[in-house]
Amino acid sequence: MNWYFDEPTTRRKVEGGIKARTKRGKIGERWWSRRFIDVLESYGVGGRLQRGRTYARAGQVVHLALGPGIVVATVQGSRVEPYRVTIRVERLADETWREVEAALAAQAVFRAKLLAGEMPQEIEDVFDDVGAPLFPEALADFDMDCSCPDWGLPCKHQAAVLYLLAERFDDDPFQVLLWRGKERDDLLAALRARAPAAGSEGRPPVVDAPLEDCVDAYWEPGVSLARLRTHPPTPPSPPDLVLRLAEPPPMRFGRRPVGDVLAAVYQQLAGSDDE
After folding, report:
1. CA 133 – CA 180 distance, rounded (Å)
2. 126-166 pLDDT, tens digit each
3. Contact at 8 Å (CB) between 163 and 51?
4. How far is residue 121 from each of residues 46, 118, 182, 262, 269, measured CA to CA in Å?
5. Do residues 178 and 68 touch, judged by C-beta distance below 8 A?
6. Which of 203, 240, 244, 252 could lock 266 by a disulfide, CB 3.0 to 4.6 Å apart?
């Protein structure tokens, strides 16, 4: 039995609705929003998603709000009363977040990029390693509800909300983490608190031994070449890494905070190295 219902195509126009920025082609610009959309589009419900994109671009979504584990929205269809949409995902447990925070804090570049409002692509591996994928992997991972008569998942109203959600992820990658249950300020505070000692990050462990016990193997590598090949490469460090890892002193250079002045200097120095 087919429970699919499609309302008439004459939708009511909305004044001041939330419109997708992209007018054609794919929605989502940054890697994390594209990853979210790729997962969504892999579910094989292309017709509904296409209608959802049309709704998103037409500004049919009247209201959209995101919180830990939940998105709520209202979407105007052909009826007078807008439809109420709710989309839930599982909030990660506190213990899982502690594991994620420890793994992220162990890499200075991860901390630096997150503190700068960027999402390092390797963050997906961190979540996979603790058994909690960052993005839903199956349609069953979403708990979706809409007040429209369509029983199919996702209906075009839910799809419109998901596409606009991807653009919200574009603007602020911390919205992805908030949806999984972690506030931005809480995560950054945990990363600063867990920062390891300088010089200890991203290196294979060193086993201490008396010199007389290792003279014969002095010229041998401490780590096998095979293990080095599997060791993930460290992403390039941003020029102002030090400023991102620690709060600059409360000083000013003229009218500008000293952190802003130093950041510009580091960027110029990095550019001169490239030349």
Report:
1. 10
2. 999 988 888 888 778 889 999 998 887 889 999 999 999 99
3. no
4. 27, 9, 18, 27, 26
5. yes
6. 240
Cβ atoms of residues 125 and 216 within 8 Å: no
How does residue 248 score in pLDDT terms, banded at 50, 70 and 90?
Answer: low
Question: At a CB cut-off of 8 Å and minimum separation 6, what does 13 contact?
Answer: 58
DSSP β-ladder status, 143-146 and 252-253: unpaired
On whether the CB atoms of residues 166 and 41 are closer than 8 A, the answer is no
Q: Rounded to whole angstroms, how far apart are CA atoms 109 and 133? A: 21
Query: Which value, in Å, is the radius of gyration of the alpha carbons in the chain?
Result: 24
Residue 225 has pLDDT above 70, yes or no: no
Lookup: tokens for 220: 């041998």
Burial environment of residue 138 by CB neighbours within 10 A (0 to 12, 13 to 18, 19 or more): exposed
Using the predicted structure, report yes or no on whether residue 224 has a pLDDT greater than 90: no
Bridge partners of 18, per DSSP, are 61
Quote the CA–CA distance of 77 and 81 in Å, as a whole number.
Answer: 8
